[in-house]
Protein: SDR family NAD(P)-dependent oxidoreductase
Organism: Microvirga arabica
Amino acid sequence: MSSEFQFAGKTVLITGGASGIGAATTRAFASNGAKVAFTYVTSTEEAGTLERNFNGSERQVMGIKADMTDPVSVADAFGKAEEAFGPVDILFANAGGLLKRSRCVDTSLELWQEAIAVNLTSTFLACQLALRSMEPRKSGTLVLMSSLAAFDGGGPGASHYAATKGAVATYIRALAKEVGPLGIRVNGVAPGLIGTRFHDVFSTPEGRKATVERTPLRREGTPEDVAEAVLFLASERASYLSGEILQINGGLGMI
């Protein structure tokens, strides 16, 4: 991981930050001087490893078990982060997931509502809490997790997931307009095929191979590819970028 970005003195909160893209981004921010609080639900072992790797004589990384779809749990997570490291300067709203593949005609209302909760409501709650702290200071940066699925409709059985990620993409632009006058920037990332547990669970080896063959760069992305983009968007190097969504897919989004 590069050390080109400087985040010393910054407090970062990453939702879903113990594994995959979230963990890579937690490591990246911490390696570049930030104090990082991250939330997780089930990745207890991974959370402990991240804390051990970065916490020496001074605490730099803290894991917080939290359900980001629950307002009380979200408020508790922000409270713990701010108590440990101070007001949140940067939010990476990363928590979310596909849950399961299901054709529209077979998708239950329960699955539809759960997809909205996990991908959209979790993002809304995290942004709301972050902005309540950022607006009085007229400073802060939000980076939200969308997906290539928001632009191409996603793979088979992912219409519910694509719909929520499309909503996140629209939310990014709406928030950028709303809080830009206060000096707060809002951007997003939209990964394509990234080699994480997500695709280990929800994609077949044959499907992944076929996607790579359609990708101009002819490889899967890595969590670090996405983390570098998040750091750029959160940094002063992107100080005149807001309402943008970086598609990180090796060129697949052009096809």
